[in-house]
């Protein structure tokens, strides 16, 4: 990392975000994640009524269209979780009670 650089992870809306509808966490090309506020975008789709998986997929599709960069996002809704990525691989794991 560059000296004095603040990555996307601690930036609300970029590396993480939540509302009453649910929350999201993202990783990948940090500058672009911060520019498009990827986690905020994904949670916005939950607020609009999409399920967690659909919200994750839509956010990643738009992220790739806007930036051409790679990222992954995990979205947690009220009763479900979803994840999406546009890289060759991204390990995710979801455990349900």
From TrEMBL:
Classification via InterPro entries: Ntn_hydrolases_N (IPR029055), Peptidase_T2 (IPR000246)
Record field: catalytic activity: L-asparagine + H2O = L-aspartate + NH4(+)
Assigned EC number: 3.5.1.1
Enzyme class: hydrolase
Superkingdom of origin organism: Archaea
Record GO terms (molecular function): asparaginase activity
Gene Ontology cellular-component annotations: cytoplasm
Record-listed substrate binding positions: 5-8, 27-30
The protein's name: Plant-type L-asparaginase
